[in-house]
Amino acid sequence: MRKRATAKEVADAAGVSKWTVIRAFTPGASITEESKRRVLEAAAVLNYTPNLLARSLATNLTHQVAVFVDDFANPQKLPFLETLTERLQAEGLVAVLININNHFDHVHALLNADQRQVDAVILFGTAFRNETLSDRQLGRGMPPMFVLARDSQIDGVPAVVCDAELALRDIVDHLYERGYRRPGFMTGAPALSTALRRRQHFIDFWKGKGVDEIAILSADRYSAEAGAGSVRHYLNDIDPAARVDVLMCENDILALGAMDEIRGNFGLRIPDDIAVVGFDNYELGGASCYGLTTYEQPRIEMVQAVIGMIKGRLEPETVTLPGKLVVRTST
């Protein structure tokens, strides 16, 4: 294996001290232009780059952020992860993606992240238990945690989330104005300490308009297949005269699966027989074959907020940001 050039070798070549080399690669450090020029020229000749892991021993910062994900089947995760990793890298931070699953639970993941000395942990999934994250193995020295894109119900863990109350008010107002009066709601995977609260707001706003009967459909995970299966079970079991006239799904992936099932296997028209609404504004939902009405989360602003807390520019507190209703042909 190629032997890496050291800071001492660069210092000898440039005729300066090792600490001058370190200052030359430290943003904002005090160093003369002439010394910095000599260091950078010697570094280029020796193909030297600073060892960030070694530097972290002195700064107590590794510039690594662990991102915990537990529902990779949900394709809406990808746009968020793209924005998150891009913005982290722009800040000089690196994302360490950790897959939470049956073989690697949250406690093991947190202990592993702590051993790697990550600067922070972002919980970006559905099933983070308060009692699990409060496990006695996890002490005070653990890195700070933040929840992204879901409400946090974990003490001391702030969240950055789209304003669900505002979103559902806008959605229900739109549906009511269009004349729908028999609403239904499809939930996704059961959430634990990081909930969405979309269903409850949906129910509350309909009740505020005098509509008390709301059908609740359940999907066991966030996938098109689960959305199709949930609506199939509902349509098979309900009398056609009693069917909902509008179905809101907790996210777009469920909605797309439901739409395929409603039209493909039951021959119903959207929105004439059943209107459909999603949430997240997933790109495929905008295709002409779907025309899915949805709600767009402020993805960039949410990512900027959580990174601002990690970098210390913002106070670590729960932040709620407004999104926007996107009306298409499905309603």
From TrEMBL:
UniProt cross-references to InterPro entries, sorted A to Z: HTH_LacI, LacI/GalR-like_sensor, Lambda_DNA-bd_dom_sf, Peripla_BP_I
Species: Rhizobium sophorae
Matching entries from PANTHER family are given as: HTH-TYPE TRANSCRIPTIONAL REGULATOR GALS, LACI-RELATED TRANSCRIPTIONAL REPRESSOR
**Where in the numbering of this chain does the HTH lacI-type domain appear?**
5-59
Record keywords, A-Z = DNA-binding, Transcription, Transcription regulation
Name by which UniProt lists this protein: Substrate-binding domain-containing protein
Entry annotated with the keyword Transmembrane helix: no
Question: Has UniProt tagged this entry with the keyword Chaperone?
Answer: no
The record's GO molecular-function terms, alphabetically, read: DNA-binding transcription factor activity; transcription cis-regulatory region binding
Q: Which domain of life is it from?
A: Bacteria
